[in-house]
């Protein structure tokens, strides 16, 4: 197990923590289902290898009503029956936005169009901000080797 390299950057710069928290607060205020946001957070964090966010995302997903099957199988959501069409659209968007450099057209029209059938523009904005914020936190945690459960 690696040890933490330094305290979390947003703890060292409290204004940054306030800003990250403010984005999350704004996103949750839009009314997108908390379970869906937690599953999105969990999936992006899995992709990015962020231990604290994987642990936190699993906890939040369960707290918001995700089934044990959903939490355990979110990395294989395409191959399971446990996700709604709306959740699948959000998870596909989450993966695409998290892996922007993996293809020439990071978020193809067909993927976007499916998401747009399930979410209005404000909800899409909230989902994109949530994904971006998750990726930002993952990119702070991973290089500083933050440990799950450490804060």
TrEMBL record:
Q: Which GO terms describe its molecular function?
A: peroxiredoxin activity
Q: Mind listing the UniProt keywords for this protein, alphabetically?
A: Oxidoreductase, Peroxidase
Does the entry feature the keyword Oxidoreductase, yes or no?
yes
Q: Where is the Carboxymuconolactone decarboxylase-like domain?
A: 14-95
What InterPro entries does the entry give?
AhpD-like, AhpD_core, CMD-like
Q: Does the keyword 4Fe-4S apply?
A: no
Task: Provide the protein name.
Answer: Alkylhydroperoxidase AhpD family core domain-containing protein
Q: Which organism is it from?
A: Micromonospora coxensis
């Amino acid at each position: 197990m690696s040890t933490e390299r330094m305290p979390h950057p947003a703890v060292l710069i409290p204004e940054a923590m306030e800003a990250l928290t403010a984005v999350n607060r704004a996103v949750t205020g839009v009314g997108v289902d908390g379970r869906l946001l937690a599953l999105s957070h969990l999936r992006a964090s899995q992709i990015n290898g962020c231990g604290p966010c994987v642990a936190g995302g699993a906890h939040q997903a369960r707290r918001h009503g995700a089934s044990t099957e959903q939490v355990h199988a979110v990395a294989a959501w395409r191959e399971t029956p446990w996700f709604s069409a709306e959740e699948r659209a959000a998870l596909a968007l989450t993966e695409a936005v998290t892996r922007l450099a993996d293809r020439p057209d990071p978020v193809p029209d067909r993927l976007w169009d499916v998401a747009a059938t399930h979410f209005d523009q404000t909800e899409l904005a909230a989902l994109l901000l949530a994904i971006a914020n998750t990726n930002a936190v993952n990119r702070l945690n991973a290089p500083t080797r933050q440990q799950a459960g450490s804060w």
